[in-house]
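Customer ticket, subject: "Can you confirm the structure for Hexosyltransferase?"

Message body: Hello, I'm evaluating your service for our small team and ran a test protein. I'd like someone to confirm that this is what the system normally returns, since I don't have a reference to compare against.
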Amino acid sequence: MLKRPVRPVITAALLFCFALLLYRLSCGTRTRTRSERPAGEDAHEALLQQHERQYLLYTANLTKQIWQLKKDLKQRSVIFPPDPEERSRSELEEFMRNQLRRAEVGSGEQLQNEFAVLPFDSFTLRRVYQLETGLTGHPVETPLRRDRRNELNGALEAALHLLNQPQAGDSQNRRTYSPQHFYEGIFRTERDKGTLYDLAFRENSVPDFRRLVFFRPFAPLMKVKEEFMDTSQILINIIVPLAGRVDAFRQFMHRFSEVCIGQDGRTHLTVVFFGSEKMDEVKGILDVISRRMKYRNVTLIRLNEAFSRARGLDVGAHAWKRSNVLLFFCDVNVHFTADFLNSCRMNAQPGGFDASVKGSASEDVRLYRKFLRSSLLVVRAPSRGLFHVWHQTLCHAHLSTETFKLCLQSKALNEASHSQLGLMNFHQQINNHLLKYNQS
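Agent reply: Thanks for trying us out. I re-ran your input and got the following:
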């Protein structure tokens, strides 16, 4: 049984009015030619006129109902606006589609040179091969970082779900893909658009591949937190362990007087000096700065023992007996600006410190690892207002094996660049080549 389609009330009313207009024109024509028709049709004409009045009354009633419906609809649109959830979902979907259109997925953008190319990283089930090596300096990342592992596993699971989804016309012998069939993949992130994943699958001993491309668009920004931070009353206690190094300390105090005393004005300096040699020179430098700058927020502590950075920082921290203070563990070769001090005030959190490490070069690493194992949010980012002034690195024989190794690594990084170290290592081969070239 066929069903007639349901039409809107307004459309039906308009069609009815159009038909009625044609009917009235037809009736008017018949009225004008009434004298020409036989007399037996007068009764039929009267009946038609009666029906016409009924239809006109019905039409007027429909017109009134249509007007009332329009009025009610307008009122309802004011009282019940569109669902914000539906509107937000629609806007978000349109934003995602726009991100896909803007990204380099189907075609590339014209670039000025090779330095503007955004590289891809390639990956297998257990490794990521990268051009930007990061902290490790290795081109292969294994084991994978947890967030990286979850990200790539999500793309892999989405691909397997689509590959194994039943399709019309599939036979009983259709292929079933598993993670073992994953051949290789590449991915990269455009930080203003999203991440592109290109994955290839292959069955064993089968020459054909299945390739899937996914794009994870970045959503609009969401406000997570808004707070007001008053740092005007936060005092920073700068603790500097020192052993000898008078020239370096003199340069440090020159910068300290400019930044901490002249610009910031909310600091305290604690110097923990190891040994007795050159102690008078250090004290004299502090006295000159105090008199010239009228600065009294200085504490000088002497320890008659072997130098230990961690020990010095611990003693300097416990020497503070006044109200709450922010501790800045500093090296005598570090140069900082007033903006950096404000960054410390905004981002610091209370913690502890390992004082068992003797010597140098590893206590900061242990502190860093301690924070990583805590519930604190560790932000690793470059600071534009913090610099380490170059100085010769001495790795003493009394250091532990781990600390001595870290000291040598630090020395290698500070002494020369990678290429310069390579030239130093291969200098004999270079000299032999030059000698051979000159003889020829």
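A couple of notes from the result: Residues 393-439 form one domain. Residues 67 and 219 are 44 Å apart (CA to CA). Feel free to reply with more questions.
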